[in-house]
Amino acid sequence: MQNLLRNFKVVIHEKLYLKDPETSELGKKIVGESILLIDEIGFESFTFKKLGARISSNESSIYRYFENKHKLLLYLTSWYWGWMEYKLVFQTANIANLNVRLKKAIEVLSEEIQEDTNISHVNEKILNAIIINEYSKSYLTKEVDHENKEGYFAIYKRLVGRFETIIQEAQPNYVFAASLASTVIEGVLHQHFLKQHFPSLTTCNKHTAPQQFFTDLVFSTLNLKEYE
Amino acid sequence: MQNLLRNFKVVIHEKLYLKDPETSELGKKIVGESILLIDEIGFESFTFKKLGARISSNESSIYRYFENKHKLLLYLTSWYWGWMEYKLVFQTANIANLNVRLKKAIEVLSEEIQEDTNISHVNEKILNAIIINEYSKSYLTKEVDHENKEGYFAIYKRLVGRFETIIQEAQPNYVFAASLASTVIEGVLHQHFLKQHFPSLTTCNKHTAPQQFFTDLVFSTLNLKEYE
DNA sequence: TTAAAATTAATAGTATTACTATTATTATTG
DNA sequence: CAATAATAATAGTAATACTATTAATTTTAA
User: What is the pLDDT of residue B162?
Assistant: First the structure.
């Protein structure tokens, strides 16, 4: 995994940035540090001015890379889902047994990111924390239809589609595969959030991971046995 | 239902407002019109100044009722979940059969609000649209733990708890009742959103309602038959 | 009925945000 | 070494999210 990821670069919609942040040190710093800063102070309080101060750079220099903070968020979330897609594809490839593959897919999608893989300037563990807290804000906007048409959510949609296929192949009779796929991917984020802030609303805690809940949910719904 | 609702008033945490908007015409106008305006322009673009212009009142007068627009959103969402709780309790009361009761609960929680009941200055159909688009923003904040401690999410938590109980009573062996309850309630909003903006990510459309998906999901998961 | 109290409206003002524009400086490359 | 590209610095703007003060109006209670 480590090795495979070494040559990994997420291809992100080029309208999401003005200048590709991967092509310069400043760009990488903007991406890397914005993740840390958004995690610390939250997306609402995050500004390019504060980020500039933090990386000893200027507000206006950041505007050379990203039009505004919303586009930066779309960039970061695309990166995350692209990385997740990569993990999903690699970790489920070559698993012949459809049930085992489905189980693995749920595992990849729902496991907590424990470590930064150090493959890049991106801290995946903290990026995961941001996704849990901020992802919804990237699409719960009045511009969503326009931005969707532009293709800004393409990676996420492709990921949901891949998971839908894995579900459908494991149980061809099931008619709600798309909804189940999107419910699980969204639900995973939600359960992680509840675990941290509303423990009474979730069964998940130190001993029970979202993975267990969703594995049980999907296999029961599809009327499949986890081991066979 | 109409009649029962006539004497209905949601009891909302008193720290969510500075002056109870139910006690004056201006207050009711603020609540009623804020729903319409947020629906029209989205929560991000919504300001008290714009609302003031719309109700031919002054920005500063609105500040007499609500500290800021975040508190107003918490007020509106509390109202919505309180109304939902009321519907849930009434519509599931006196249903002896536990499976039938569970099915009814899912129906109440997932059905599309078709009509404004005209019981108040609140347009429930539009409020429902707001909840779909904006509810997450009320808790995906850095202040969530503090606000949760204050009790601002009490009504929502009580609703999830009630649904959890209905699930647990229908299937006492099931160990993930809390997570299933929160997943369904959150998932319903998400599926309604996807239906409108990302049709490829959901099975729900004109012919298939979220209700069908979630009814199937819950009954399969709990290993119960819908009719028996 | 009238005076006090409460409510609402109007005006002004502030710090911050989310930018844009311009120019100067520094680094890179051909 | 010169041209070009990238970055930094400075300044400025309209809008936002408020606060404070005072004035006008309405409500209530003696």
Answer: 98
